[in-house]
Structure formats: structure tokens, C-alpha cells
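Quick one, C-alpha cells below:
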């Protein structure tokens, strides 16, 4: 296990952050006052880049079903052909929280096992998963409407 630090000029706290498979600060020691004083926007950018690189969701679609795979190999499936009642329930949620929407959708489909699997993932991963699914659902819906209109 080596140091995967994008720049040797980064703060020692960020260097510890990028060791191993952990994205966030998994150090056992608390940062010192000097660590806070020396933290830069470059350090923030390096951490954010690392988080983004580890939040990729891959997907395939088979038979109208979206299969999203998390980086740890967990696969969760959702139908791309939703009923009006399901869409109405999602639209009735306060706000546009994709994590809440994806959880509600899975529960509404009776897919409690998928809800449990998703809840084991980090919030950034769940948000990326939800956004990926809803983006594909939106594109499929717009394409269908276009076919009907054309």
C-alpha cells in the first residue's frame, strides 16, 4: 500500500487521507493547529478529486431494468418503466433529495433488500447512484415523448 498523493507539496494531513482505500480522513491522530493553518484550497481540491474518482457508478439496462453497480460490486436494480402512482409519490416529496427519492422508490417497489444494500453505501455514492438512475429515466422518458410526438 503506497501513498497515492497527487502532489508531494500537499499538507501531511491530506497525504494521510489518501493512503490506502479510505477517501476521507481516516487518520488516528487529530490534526494539529499547524495542519489547520497550512491547509489550502489545493488540499481541498485533492480530497474532492479523490472522492469523485471513487464515486463512479456503472450501469447497464436489460429488459427495461436499470442495474447500477457500486464500486464495491453491489448491484441494485430499478425498473425504468414506472407507474404513474410511483412518479406522483416521488413528486410529492418535499425538496429534490435524490437519496430520499431513490429510497422511497425502492421501498415502494417492495425491494427492501436493495434499500438495505444502498444504506450501506456512503452518501456521495448514493447521491451519484440516484442521479445516474434519474438521469437515465429522464432521457428514456423524453425519448419516448419525442417518439410519440414525431
Amino acid at each position: 500500500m503506497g501513498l497515492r498523493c497527487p502532489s508531494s507539496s500537499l499538507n501531511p494531513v491530506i497525504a494521510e487521507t489518501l493512503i490506502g482505500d479510505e477517501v476521507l480522513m481516516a487518520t488516528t491522530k487529530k490534526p494539529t493547529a499547524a495542519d489547520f493553518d497550512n491547509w489550502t484550497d489545493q488540499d481541498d481540491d485533492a480530497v474532492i478529486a479523490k472522492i469523485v474518482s471513487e464515486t463512479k457508478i456503472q450501469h447497464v439496462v436489460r429488459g427495461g431494468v436499470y442495474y447500477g453497480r457500486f464500486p464495491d460490486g453491489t448491484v441494485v436494480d430499478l425498473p425504468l418503466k414506472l407507474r404513474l402512482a410511483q412518479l406522483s409519490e416521488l413528486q410529492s416529496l418535499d425538496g429534490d433529495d435524490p437519496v430520499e427519492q431513490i429510497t422511497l422508490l425502492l421501498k415502494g417497489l417492495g425491494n427492501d433488500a436493495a434499500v438495505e444494500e444502498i444504506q450501506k453505501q456512503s452518501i456521495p455514492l448514493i447521491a451519484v447512484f440516484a442521479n445516474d438512475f434519474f438521469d437515465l429515466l429522464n432521457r428514456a422518458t423524453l425519448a419516448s415523448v419525442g417518439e410519440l410526438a414525431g
